[in-house]
Write a sequence for this structure.
């Protein structure tokens, strides 16, 4: 079947606009828009009908120029209107690029299936593809912004059924490192275990186990700077609540959700976070990153260095001997008792690269431990009732527990 034969079948189905006719042959040529392609096909058919004195075809062509298109229901007559609605919706947001999407109605999808089935065309593109492109071109012209098919900052979704434009605003991602300079605050927001965040007597009706976190010290200044809806904190691991995070800090990415502003002064933001934190935390090295950095951060297997102050009841000779053994053999650790309520009971194999005795007194010692990420240092010391083997406690045949823990290097 020739192109013109296929076009005749489509024309005989009912009034059809240039866009919808041309779209059925979109994959056959480049350099023309669908409406130009459709108009050209109609012109050739009109000339052919005149030559063949085909009054039936002439009448169908006339109906197409006089009546609403049955395929798109006149949708392509309102491209400028849709572009205007999108620009208005976008006007409250700062963005450099965008994408247009379409939520089709059931009727439009059904009409498209009918025309494909009746005509047998295999060269068509979907109506939403053309609509997205044509509205996108108009938005580009109105705003000076560019469409981005791969990683748009914002998506304008044309909701045909409800005659409105919805926005999907993609998050802004900022990388940095944080130092936690006081004990007793968690890395992220921690809902109350008792009430799940709704508020109860245990949490003094705050809904939180702890009243502040590293996450929240960063959140508020960022929300004010980006005018975002919320933030999400992604850390490269986490330290215990009672541990300090020192050295050059722990890597993190903070995600600003649905930001109205994107061109942030990160130097000023860093200064403001640190000012408000008042010595509790400190952030450094803020920079913009892509969303993929979050996954890279989560899968990062960085070595760690800890400084542990340990309470013990053994001799210096036994203590030094235990440290020497720990750095030579694999450490088998079952999930610590203290976190079994939220983590699977698994056995993990980790290594201590080096354990150095920094100071030793009767009753206390300070040790610097270089180890693989994921090693539970408190249990490496105490043994956790045999769930970590070997441990300082088991090797010294005494008791040992961490009374202060600092993370001094990550990665």
């Amino acid at each position: 079947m020739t192109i013109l034969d296929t076009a005749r079948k489509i024309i005989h189905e009912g009034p059809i606009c240039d866009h919808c006719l041309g779209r059925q042959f979109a994959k056959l040529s480049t350099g023309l828009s669908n409406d130009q392609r459709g108009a050209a096909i109609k012109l050739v058919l009109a000339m052919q009908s005149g030559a063949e004195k085909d009054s039936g075809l002439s009448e169908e062509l006339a109906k197409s120029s006089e009546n609403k298109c049955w395929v798109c229901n006149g949708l392509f007559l309102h491209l400028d209107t849709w572009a205007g609605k999108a620009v208005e919706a976008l006007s409250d947001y700062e963005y450099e690029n965008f994408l247009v999407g379409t939520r089709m109605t059931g009727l439009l999808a059904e009409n498209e299936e009918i025309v494909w089935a009746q005509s047998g065309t295999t060269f068509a593109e979907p109506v939403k593809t053309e609509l997205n492109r044509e509205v996108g071109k108009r938005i580009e012209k109105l705003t000076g912004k560019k469409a981005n098919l791969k990683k748009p900052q914002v998506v304008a979704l044309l909701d045909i059924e409800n005659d409105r434009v919805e926005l999907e605003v993609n998050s802004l991602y900022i990388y940095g490192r944080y130092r936690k300079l006081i004990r007793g605050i968690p890395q992220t927001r921690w809902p109350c275990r008792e009430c799940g965040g709704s508020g109860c007597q245990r949490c003094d009706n705050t809904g939180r186990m702890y009243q502040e976190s590293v996450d929240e010290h960063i959140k508020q200044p960022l929300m004010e700077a980006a005018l975002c809806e919320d933030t999400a904190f992604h850390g490269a691991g986490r330290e215990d609540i009672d541990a300090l995070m020192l050295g050059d800090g722990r890597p993190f990415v903070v995600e600003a959700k649905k930001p109205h502003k994107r061109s942030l002064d990160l130097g000023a933001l860093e200064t403001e976070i640190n000012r408000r934190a008042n010595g509790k935390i400190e952030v450094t090295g803020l920079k913009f990153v892509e969303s993929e950095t979050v996954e890279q951060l989560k899968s990062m297997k960085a070595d760690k260095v800890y400084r542990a102050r340990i309470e013990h009841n053994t001799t210096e000779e036994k203590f030094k001997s235990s440290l020497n053994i720990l750095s030579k053999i694999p450490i088998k650790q079952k999930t610590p008792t203290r976190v079994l309520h939220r983590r699977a009971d698994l056995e993990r194999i980790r290594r201590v690269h080096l354990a150095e005795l920094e100071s030793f007194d009767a009753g206390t010692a300070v040790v610097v431990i270089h180890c693989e990420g994921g090693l539970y240092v408190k249990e490496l010391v105490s043994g956790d009732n045999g769930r970590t083997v070997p441990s300082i406690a088991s090797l010294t045949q005494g008791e040992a527990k961490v009374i202060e823990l600092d993370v001094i290097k990550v990665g």
Observations:
- The mean pLDDT is 93.
- The domain at 172-298 is CATH 3.30.70.2510 (Alpha-Beta Plaits).
- Residues 332 and 349 are 5 Å apart (CA to CA).
